[in-house]
Write a structure and sequence with these properties.
single chain, about 130 residues, alpha+beta, two-stranded parallel sheet, 5 helices, about 40% helix, globular, PACS1 protein, PACS1/2_C
Length: about 130
Amino acid sequence: LKVVAVGGAGYHSTLLRCFVRHLGAKSPEWLGYLRFLLVPLGTHPVAQYLGSVDGRYGAAFLDPPWRELFGRSEPPATEPFNVVGRILAYVTGAGATHPLPVAEAMLTCKHKFPDEDSYQKFVPFVGVSLA
């Protein structure tokens, strides 16, 4: 099952948090059937990594016209290229996927007032290196 996630880094982080919280605790045998296909809008570190290991992905979503279109604060009057066509071509041709490690970091948070107890929060993340 291909799950296409079109959005910025913040949206993908929210999606990852929901996945880990609600689906990650379930039995893992069915997780092998899910494939998340990330389509970046704007600057996205995971997309940069995917573009470095997959030239086709980089050509579709990291070229200057794509970055320029989604780096603007206002949408252009006309679409400079077929955005939907690019996404559909990527989804259709995505036969191989790249496994990305998902992990959680435990953060200890303190309240603003010293008399309140601290609390722990788990934050999921995708572990990629952009060396």
